[in-house]
Amino acid sequence: MEVLEFLIDEEATMLEAMQQLDKVAKKVLFVTRDGHFVAAITDGDIRRWILKKGNLDAKVKKMANYHPKFLLEEEKTKAKDFMKKHSVEALPILDEEKNILSVVLWNDEEVEPQRTLDVPVVIMAGGLGTRLYPYTKILPKPLIPIGEIPIAEHIINRFNRHGSDQFYFVVNHKKNMIKAYFNEVEKAYKVDYVDEDKPLGTGGGLSLLKGKINSTFILSNCDILIEEDYEKIYNYHKKENNLITMVCSLKNIKIPYGVIEISETGEIESMKEKPELSFFTNTGMYIVEPKIIEELEDDKSIGFPDIIEQYKVKGEKIGIYPISENSWMDMGQIDEMEEMRRKLERDE
């Protein structure tokens, strides 16, 4: 990759940094002042800023680390050992004037992932998938192929690579097709099923897991892919002592028109030409404590967001874990499904 792709000026905004991190698909950018390397900023730095309710229009220098890791050119041969010691994914190599000459990347194939996330995963797979007609007239949504394997298998494979090997499907619509597929596929994990007799929503089906899950678990919709470090999300949830942690993605929408704000007297108060709106949206993935399952009313249809609202009213701690826009793929609608296919093909 080109060095310039990793560089961001300290006067740039947090939003611009998030967008650039998405482009380089790494977790760090190198911050410059007058063209010279002075600091580094990671996705974790930006996440902490967001969780402190920091404004995304704030400057990068507010959260950048001005004591970053680097090596001089004559030390470049030590880069891999240095990166391993300090858990660095991308390391700048500098000349004596602190100009970045190159960036050493820790190639994925050289890193043996640690499989330590021994957490059960529940996949809500009982919906009709009406927004994906005509595909779902033939197949249940979890079995719609994205490339060579169905979306549900993509989801499971990602969790399995992090160490999860116990999966539960909450099934209803075309459930026998789902069972037949996963009973036959060669796998290094276990799949169990709980059957809804009637649609119970994205939350109600969890009541069927009483007595089956007694520890913190991950809940996922069956039509999303999250490209993140699941162990970091889980550890954040436990550290914050949340009852539920919702994984939320930053979304940026550029309004293609000039936006006018009007005062109470009918006069123009302000004008913004083609503004960009930034907000966080629910991805459909959560880290959840088992208390939720035990306290659910049996045989009652309810959406998981409604469950969250109920516990918020009770004063329980509900947190979010922010991720970038490109870390979340959703196939809830046909155009989104096709975009997911294109993205996975590009990445393979």
TrEMBL record:
UniProt keyword annotations, A-Z: Transferase
Entry superkingdom: Bacteria
Signal peptide annotation: none
The Nucleotidyl transferase domain, residue ranges: 122-345
GO molecular function: transferase activity
Gene3D superfamilies: CBS-domain (3.10.580.10), Spore Coat Polysaccharide Biosynthesis Protein SpsA, Chain A (3.90.550.10)
UniProt protein name: Nucleotidyltransferase-like protein
